[in-house]
Specification:
The structure holds 2 protein chains of 2 kinds. Chain A is mainly alpha-helical. In chain A, 53% of the residues lie in helices and 0% in strands. Classes of the chains: A mainly alpha, B alpha/beta. The interface between A and B is large, with 54 and 78 residues.
């Protein structure tokens, strides 16, 4: 028999043999995280507009603390090729920026830096890095700063338009570590929540919505935060159920209390647009790692955060309660996950059919 | 005014009627379809290769029992191996020729399997022996089943479950509907699509035989909306004397999964661990139904099938009618070979297909297509820790918690996975597809299922 030339498909490179599915959706962890960072840019810009260069310094210092800690202590076994280590996934940048946004503009930079380092080091890496932490790292960093530097974290410079030049610093940002900050002539202003709590004074709703009030860097511009959150929800990078349930709960409970005694209890619109509720609801509570994984759990989580915020603000000793509300609910997440497992397809039928 | 109102009302009524039948299923994913590569290409017959290799295990159940020896001369359609028991199916020669060898041969599932190698007779007309064409009208149910089994008909949608077993549902189940699965939700594949466009009468004839064998009055053909020409062809040839509905379905993966399809067309939920017969339904793939019709038209057993060869890694994508047992190598060569950036050769579609590392594996009865992906399409190997984003929960059509199951799998806690309904996972891969952390969830679940099976086997 004469040999016949066999048709051979030429294989240029070795074939891959991998388990199915062989296709992959578009979004990856870095895509999601860096998009969140991108959505924070307008909020950083607004903070800079209101509080001058101090805003950039404080946010930069806390981000530097977070990123530096992540780079030095973080490990990324899954992406050894990246020169940036685990910074590349973008989650440390979010933590650093978010922490910076919760701080007042006059904060000494070394404190902000330590806060960022603590947030990542203690709040995230100690638990095992991305995906394993229980508490929102940025809020843990803020809780640490509140405990360690109570004065610096509650000295609120006034927003722009209070008379001083935009270029002037809003506090002794460059104070040396461990030394008492020099008293500056920066104008301070009580936050709307402080005014409400301790002086029973309201703030015009328009100021609250636009952000032209005293407060932490990134929490004042309620409307802007909502818009940025809407963008993230539209792209599918943020689960809308959490902010929706938090804001709805706060609004409902506040409206109820307001209708009972309008003199004692602030209105729903005030509650929604004052303090850190917007930033907390849109950016902190929605951190997927520290929020429930089921949609039912997310609704419960959001309602819980909303209730705690109202309780702490109205009956607690602090003017603001978003941070503790979210941290407390973070601790409940494993329980919420267990309690809200989805109903597996075909199981209800089985139960009905069982004798 | 009244006229416009009446028109609007009738339009609403019509759209409601269209919708009342299609219930749909929740969750699922939308991978890119890529059907445009082959959807318009008519089915062509591939010339007979020089050799075909026919493994004895081409179906779910017991492998077939050899009935020929080395050196035997067989004609196209002759039986090489007989069914070994009820849940088994015979294997027939897909070409005339000589049995050159009976030995182990690489199987597309990655294992080795006893296979019959046939040197194809050159210059043969490859005309099958004249044979009895069973007259379905006069046959009892048992006789239809025997004819179907003898023809070696198995599910052509991938799982290759023997068709005659499906046609004999458990005695306690009352079957009221036959559902023909024309969803073809896997990207790239157009095998069923072309069958429906080019052989709609066969689909209807096969459905008629199934309804006769099962004594069922209602038939539904579910087709995803992205195949309007198939829906049109089936509508055009719909028999007037049967209650057959052609139902357009939402384009969503995994629409063609049995339980999802039943939920979609009838709104019935098959209980966990139960078969479709428990809700009165028998589901059969469109290709198998058409093959069934062929058996009762020509008497020829299942010796060839339609295969889509597609993907950006293949030079000339095509829909081909190929003899069962054609080697992957010959099939790819006929399609012009691989491109330089070809990376992954799959039997089946990219969501559930089996990767092939050996081009000598044969096309089986259950091979729906050959898809070749390029290097830039292949999944990245890097993965991150689970960030609990919950996308897998929103993708899983079985409403499992892949996030939790994945963590349990990594920790080797297989018993807990069983309690979390691992058995309901059908490995559709929707969770892995959406996972932003790129965790190989479906692979972990497959491995855990195997580990559990082994544990149980060891415990017995």
């Amino acid at each position: 028999m004469t040999p016949v030339a066999r048709p051979e498909p030429r294989v240029a490179r070795p074939l891959v043999v991998a388990a199915s599915p062989h296709l992959k959706g578009r979004d990856s962890v870095p895509t999601i995280m860096w998009n969140v960072v991108g959505s924070l840019v307008p909020i950083i810009a607004a903070a800079t507009w209101f509080f001058g260069p101090s805003a950039l310094f404080v946010i930069g210092a806390s981000a530097l603390g977070a990123l530096g800690t992540e780079r030095v202590l973080g490990r990324s076994p899954s992406s050894p090729r990246s020169r940036w280590g685990s910074i590349a996934d973008g989650s440390a940048a979010i933590t650093g920026i978010l922490l910076g946004l919760t701080l007042p503009a006059g904060m000494p930079l070394w404190m902000a830096f330590i806060g960022g380092a603590f947030a990542i080091g203690f709040g995230k890496l100690l638990f095992g890095g991305i995906g394993y932490n229980i508490f929102n790292p940025a809020l843990l960093g803020r809780a640490f700063l509140m405990a360690a530097f109570p004065v610096a974290t509650t000295t609120w410079p006034a927003a722009a338009g209070a008379g001083a030049s935009w270029w002037s610093l809003r506090g002794d940002n460059f104070a040396l570590p461990l030394l008492t900050a020099r008293a500056t002539d920066a104008i301070t202003a009580a936050t709307p929540l402080n005014l409400m709590k301790f002086e029973h004074k309201g703030t015009a709703l328009l100021d609250l919505v636009l952000g032209t009030t005293g407060g932490s860097l990134g929490e004042t511009a309620g409307l802007l935060i909502l818009l940025c959150g809407a963008y993230l929800a539209w792209r599918g990078f943020l689960n809308w159920r959490i902010p929706a349930s938090i804001l709805a709960t706060v609004a409902a409970v506040a409206a109820l209390l307001h209708s009972i005694d309008a003199g004692r209890y602030p209105s729903a619109s005030f509650m929604l647009f004052s303090g850190g509720i917007m930033l907390g609801a849109v950016y902190m509570a929605t951190d997927p790692v520290t929020a429930p994984v089921t949609n039912a759990g997310r609704w419960v989580f959001g309602v819980g955060v909303g209730l705690l915020v109202v309780v702490i603000r109205i009956w607690g000793g602090l003017p603001e309660g978003v941070m503790y509300a979210i941290l407390l609910m973070n601790a409940l997440v494993p329980f919420l996950n267990r309690a809200t497992q989805p109903r597996v397809f075909g199981t209800r039928v089985a139960r009905e059919g069982a004798p | 005014m009244a006229e416009a109102g009446a028109g609007l009302l009738s339009r609403l009524a019509r759209s409601a009627a269209r919708r009342t039948n299609a219930f749909g299923f929740s969750h699922g994913v939308h991978p890119p379809e890529h059907k445009e590569l082959t959807a318009h290409l008519p089915i062509r017959r591939m010339p007979f290769p020089e050799e075909v290799v026919l493994p004895l295990r081409q179906h779910a159940g017991k492998p077939a029992k050899l009935v020929v020896g080395k050196g035997a001369h067989v004609e196209r359609g002759d039986m090489l191996a007989a069914a070994d028991g009820w849940v088994s199916s015979p294997v027939h020669a897909s070409a005339s020729g000589w049995v050159t060898d009976i030995d182990w041969w690489p199987h597309p599932d990655g294992s080795m399997c006893t296979a019959v190698r046939l040197a194809v007779e050159r210059y043969s007309g490859q005309v099958a022996r004249p044979r009895m064409v069973p007259d379905w009208h006069g046959l009892s149910q048992a006789e239809v089943l025997r004819a179907v089994q003898e023809a070696g008909v198995v599910g052509l949608g991938g799982a290759a479950f023997p068709t005659h077993v499906k046609l004999a549902p458990p005695k306690d189940a009352t079957i009221d509907t036959v559902v023909v699965n024309g969803a073809e939700c896997e990207p790239y594949l157009t095998t069923d699509h072309r069958t429906m466009v080019e052989y709609p009468e066969r689909v209807h004839f096969g459905l008629r035989i199934m309804m006769h064998a099962l004594d069922v009055r209602r038939g539904i053909i579910g087709v995803e909306r992205n195949k309007p020409d198939a829906i049109e062809a089936l509508e055009r040839t719909r028999p007037a004397d049967l209650d057959v509905t052609v139902l357009p379905l939402t384009v969503k993966y995994p629409q063609g999964a049995e339980k999802m399809l039943i939920r979609s067309v009838l709104g019935r939920e098959v209980a966990s661990g139960k078969l479709p017969a428990s809700v009165g339904v028998i589901v059969q793939n469109v290709g198998s139904v058409a093959t069934l019709a062929e058996v009762f038209e020509t008497g020829l057993p299942l010796v060839e099938r339609i295969v889509t060869v597609s993907g950006r890694g293949v030079q000339r994508p095509a829909n081909l009618l190929v003899p069962v047992g054609t080697k992957l190598r010959d099939l790819l060569a006929f399609c012009g070979g691989l491109t330089d950036d070809a990376a992954l050769v799959l039997f089946g579609g990219p969501m559930m297909g089996l990767p092939q590392g050996n081009l000598d594996v044969p096309i089986l009865k259950g091979t729906t297509g050959v898809v070749v992906l390029t290097h830039d399409e292949v999944r990245d190997q890097q993965s991150f820790a689970c960030i609990h984003c919950g996308r897998c929960l929103d993708a899983c059509p079985m409403f499992l918690n892949p996030s939790l199951l994945g963590e349990l799998a990594k920790a080797g806690r297989h018993e807990e996975m069983e309690a979390a309904h691992l058995a309901d996972c059908m490995l559709c891969g929707s969770c892995s597809y959406v996972c932003p952390s790129n965790i190989p969830l479906a692979q972990l679940f497959q491995a855990s299922k195997t580990a559990l099976r082994r544990q149980k086997a060891a415990g017995q």
